[in-house]
Specification:
The chain has 289 residues and is α/β, with parallel strands linked by helices. It contains ten helices and eight strands. The chain has an eight-stranded parallel β-barrel with strand order 1-2-3-4-5-6-7-8, surrounded by five helices.
């Protein structure tokens, strides 16, 4: 039973009138549509029914708000149910402009094609293609699985090429950008991602003005860029991502930071990671103005 029903909205019509899929992503920014991260249940959960119900509640709430649900793929290497199989199992309605599926390289070819076929059948247009965080429990695509030549290990670049070739003009493909990696190396990777078919970019979490992100925006002025906003008060969890230790007692106000990011990067969209649906969700409707 659905938790919410999706009203017909003017901006929904606007999205459908966008000329092409990239235009749709630009409309996400122009119409101030948040990208809201949702994690599927872990496969090791001991409360699967409750976790599935919670996933459905979050998904339907995002749909009802007119935002875009961004469903992760074994985030941080934790073996989880695939977003597409959860949507299918729960019979959740798919609004093509409001769903983004993360897709990494830790799949068998059979599972990869099943995910892509499901997305195509349901009209899911947006894919965030990443190399991903692996573990010993996860399979890994082999170069021969997707026709990658001259590489020892499959990366997001190879996966982008495969999807673009096998599912031409079906998806809008996004990629990640990490401003905390060595600058020259990260921009070289981004150039290869763009050449492989990337059409939009989502950054790693940003909590203040970032000179590397500024350079990204200058280098790719015509590419939609989505800034990831860290919505957990536990800022220290970002220590590994940023490459230095953040003390556990560091005070951090996610809502105030989100408002600041809108002022710093008005030309960008925003991806909300670890958003508190009980404590923060009702606040974000007043932050993007």
């Amino acid at each position: 039973m659905p938790f919410f029903s999706l009203p017909q909205t003017d901006f929904g019509i606007c999205l459908n009138r966008g000329k092409g899929l990239v235009s749709g992503m630009r409309n996400h920014i122009e119409n101030k549509i948040y990208h809201v991260e949702i994690l599927p249940p872990k496969q090791a959960t001991e409360k699967l029914e409750a976790d599935l119900a919670l996933f459905a509640e979050k998904y339907q709430r995002v749909m009802a708000s007119g935002y875009c649900a961004c469903i992760t793929d074994n985030a941080m290497g934790h073996l989880s149910f695939q977003g597409t199989e959860v949507i299918e199992e729960l019979g959740l309605e798919v609004h093509p402009q409001q769903v983004m599926i993360h897709l990494n390289t830790f799949h068998t070819r059979e599972d990869l094609n099943h995910i892509l076929d499901f997305c195509q059948a349901k009209g899911i247009r947006y894919l965030l293609v990443i190399t991903g965080d692996g573990s010993d429990r996860l399979p890994k695509l082999q170069p021969s699985d997707i026709g990658a030549v001259g590489v020892e290990s499959v990366t997001s670049v190879d996966l982008l090429k495969y999807i673009g070739q096998e599912y031409a003009d079906v998806f809008t493909l996004g990629v990640a950008f990490n401003p905390y990696e060595p600058q020259e190396h990260e921009f070289e990777k981004m150039a290869r991602k763009m050449a492989a078919g990337a059409e939009f970019i989502i950054t790693q979490p940003v909590v203040e003005k970032n000179t590397i992100v500024d350079q990204l925006l200058i280098k790719y002025p015509d590419v939609p860029v989505i800034i990831e906003a860290w919505m957990s008060k536990k800022l220290y969890l970002l220590s590994e991502a940023v490459g230095y230790d953040i003390p556990e007692n560091t005070e951090f106000d996610p809502i105030a930071t989100l408002q600041s990011l809108h002022q710093l990067y008005p030309q960008c969209g925003v991806y909300l990671s670890l958003l508190g649906f009980k404590t923060q969700y009702h606040l974000i409707q007043d932050t993007w103005i």
